[in-house]
Amino acid sequence: MLTKLLEKSLAVEPSGWVAGIGHLLLRASTGLMIFYIHGLHKLEGGLAYLQHGNPWKLAEEVVEMRFPAPVASALAATIVQFVCAPLIAMGLLTRLSAVLLTGTLSVAILQNLLTGRDPQLAILYVLVMMSLAFLGGGKYSLDAWLITRGQRSVLIRTKEAIEYGYNHGDCRSLGIGGDALWRGHE
Questions:
Q1: 6 sits in which H/E element
Q2: How many CA atoms lie within 13 A of 177 on its CB side?
């Protein structure tokens, strides 16, 4: 009995519901952390700088890094973190958002090293974003929902076409259904 329990705990089911929940928790928590701790905070500082001329620590650090157009660079990093992080949390446009965040957070690693701060959190964020760039949003994401919704739509249109007497060639020219859907209907 103990060996069976051990075998089950070691089982790898990347498409199973447990792995899907783990993927969801990792994606949502990391996205929300980047949004709340970094994106929102930087946006507030950027808006105060633009509206009232208040000092903006991020822009000052970008100047010290000798980046061209430091305010524009700081605004771009802020917008990426503010927009892409919630998209990651929801699992919408996950791969694109993860790639953009990987680039932005890679610069944050450099920024932390140059200012003498600990880069561990930025490194961890980059590793998670790189993983999400390869893995996508996962089973419980808006990306997956949109894709399965589109596939259901094609399946429904194909079934309707069959019911109305269209043949495979007719539907193929209209872009409805795949070959696998037609097996047994011709």
A1: helix 2-10
A2: 21
Q: Where are the alpha helices (H) located in 35-167, listed in sequence order?
A: 40-52, 57-64, 70-90, 94-115, 120-135, 142-163
pLDDT of amino acid 182: 44
The Cα–Cα gap between 89 and 72 comes to: 26
Residues of the chain with pLDDT below 70 are 5, 8-9, 150-186
- The Cα–Cα gap between 114 and 103 comes to 17
Instruction: Identify whether the C-beta of residue 50 lies closer than 8 Å to the C-beta of residue 74.
Output: no
* Predicted TM-score (pTM) of this structure: 0.77
Structural domain boundaries in the chain? 18-135, 142-182
What pLDDT is attached to residue 25? Answer: 97
* Distance separating alpha carbons of residues 152 and 40, to the nearest angstrom: 37
Structure tokens at 88: 């990651």
Q: Are 94 and 143 in contact (CB under 8 A)?
A: yes
C-alpha span between 167 and 164 (Å, rounded): 9
pLDDT value at residue 63: 92
Q: Tell which residue, 147, 113, 143, 137, has the closest CA to residue 31.
A: 137
